[in-house]
Amino acid sequence: MKRVVERMKREVERMKREVERMKRVVERMKRVVERMKRVVERMKREVERMKREVERMKRVVERMKREVERMKREVERMKRAAEGEIKENKWMKREVERRKRVT
User: Fold this and answer.
1) What are the φ/ψ torsions at residue 73 (nearest 5 degrees)?
2) Res. 81: pLDDT tops 90
3) Does pTM surpass 0.90?
4) Which three-class secondary structure state does DSSP give residue 41?
5) How many structural domains comprise the chain?
6) Which residues form a coiled coil (predicted)?
């Protein structure tokens, strides 16, 4: 009977140690989970920041496209104006020649 009681005591001690070890493991896992949660939150914030950055860049690109289009139109208008001046000059030359012949 005494041996059985001793064995049971040892068994109880072993189980207590096992429970303590498991508690420590659980605590460690809790800390790991908390750390992962913080990491995930940081990543979410980073993703949101990047999304805002992308939106801002899209707006910048749109503005630049509009600026390029405006410049193209301006260049085209200047070309037409220059062609108009050339034609006007030719017309003026012909007009001057005609007047010379008339007088």
Assistant:
1) -60, -40
2) no
3) no
4) helix
5) 1
6) 5-88
